[in-house]
Amino acid sequence: MISNKKIKSLANLYFSKVTKIRRHLHQNPELSFKEYETSKYIQEQLTLSDIKFKIGFLETGIVAIIEGRNPNKKTILLRADMDALPIDEKNDVDYKSKKYGIMHACGHDAHSAIALGSAFILNDLKNDFEGTIKIMFQPGEEVLPGGANLMIEAGVLDNPKVDKAIALHVFPSMEVGKVGFKSGMYMASSDEIYISVNGKGGHAAMPDDCINPLIIASEIILEINKLFMMPNSLNGTLGENIPTVVVFGKIEGKGATNVIPSVIEIAGTIRTMDEAWRASIHQQIKSLVKKVSLTYGIESFVKIEKGYPFLVNDIPFTNNCIIGAINYLGEKQVEILPLRMTAEDFAFISQKVPSCFFRLGTGNKLKGITSGVHTSNFDIDEKSLEIGIGLMVRLALNELNS
Prior knowledge:
This protein is of the alpha/beta class.
C-alpha cells in the first residue's frame, strides 16, 4: 500500500511544475472545441514524462494511459476539461490571459494541470500498484452537446473498459485546504427551452385589431411558473420530491411604445434530477403552451434543446472516497455538500460508470481570492493544486486496491 506520506511528498515535489503548467494554460485560453494549442501543450508534457497517450478524440481530446502491474485488474478514469470561456479577464496578475475576451474563468486550467500532476505521480508509482489509470483531457465542457458525451461516443470508456471514474471541480466559495463531497444525486440535468409566440401585431392605439403576443407570452410564463412552483407530482408519484427548476430568463419582442409586435420569443432553462420526470416536464410544457395559445386562437412553437443529464455520485464509491479524503487530509478538511441545480457534463460519465465528482476548495479570503466562477475576476489559491493532485492520486489508488 502506497502511503499518504509518499503521495504528499510527490505532490509537493511536482507542485512548482504543476503551477507553471496551470499558469501557462491560464495565459493561453481557448474556447470550447478549439483547444488546439492546449491539446498540443498537454501532449508535450505527457511526452516529456514518457507517459503513453492516445489522440484523435474530437480533434483535441487526449487519453493518457498509465499501466501498473497486472494492468487488466481494474481501470480507473480521471477526467479533466480544457476549454475556457468568452470572458475578458480583469485580474492584475503575471499570468493574466493573453487573449482578449477569452479567460479560464471556470478553473479548467487548474483541472488540466491537476490531471497532469496526477499523471506524473502515478507514472512514478506504476511499479507499485496494480491496474490501469486512464486520464481524460476533454474539450467542450462549457457548451452543448458536451465533450464528455462525444468522447464517450468515441470510445473513451473502452479499451480498456473503465470500472470507476473520478473528477474534481474548483470551488471558490470553499477555503483552500478543504474538499467537498455529496453521495447520490448531486447536480441537475440542464435543458434549454425556447418558445415563439405568434400573435397579430399592429398599432398599440388599436389593440382590438391585434392579438398581443406579449399578453399570451406572459400568461404562458405565469402558468408554467405556477405549475412547477407547486410540489412536483404527476398521477401522484412521478416527479414527487424531485428537485426541479423551470425558469425563464429572456423575453424579446420587436415592438415599441406604440407598436404591438407580431412575435415574442422567450427562453429559459429546465433542471431536474430524474430522467422520466425530465421527459414529463418537456411534455407538460408543450401541452400547456398549446392550450394557452389555442385559447387566443394563435399558434406557438416550443423547442427544447436537451442538454446534460443529472450527475449522480455512486453512493458506495463516493462514501469510500470521503473516507479516503478524511484519511488523507483530516476530518475537519472534508465537508458534505448540499445538492446543486447547476449542471456539469461529467454527468454523462456518471450515468455510464460508478463515479465520484467532488469539489476542491480554491478560495482564500485573506488573499482576496473570492470571486465566483464565470466572472472576470475569478482566480484560485494555487496551493489547491498540490492538494488536488495528491488527493486525486490517493483516491485512484484506493480504488485500484479495493
